[in-house]
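Note to self: keep these together.
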Amino acid sequence: MTEWVRWEDVKKKRPRTPEQEESGRRAIQNLITGYELAQLRKSKKLTQVQVAKVMGVSQRRVSAIERGEIDRSEITTLRAYITALGGQIRILADFGEESTQIA
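Structure:
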């Protein structure tokens, strides 16, 4: 017979620091971003190999980006990916009430 456990009880058994929670949020956002980039590439009817050729990288690198391995990506790599899809990358520094585009 299955014993039901409340989510709150599970969380209490495995406390997380704020840093761990932020890391988890960042990982989830990277997965979402990678998925969105892959969907954009597919909507343009491009293969990973075609994008990699334009970028000057391997297909494995394109795959890594699309799997959400973005923290490890350099801005130049991301810029090349977006450019290969025909877009531009914009980087915004956000300080709450103030923000500035830096690239």
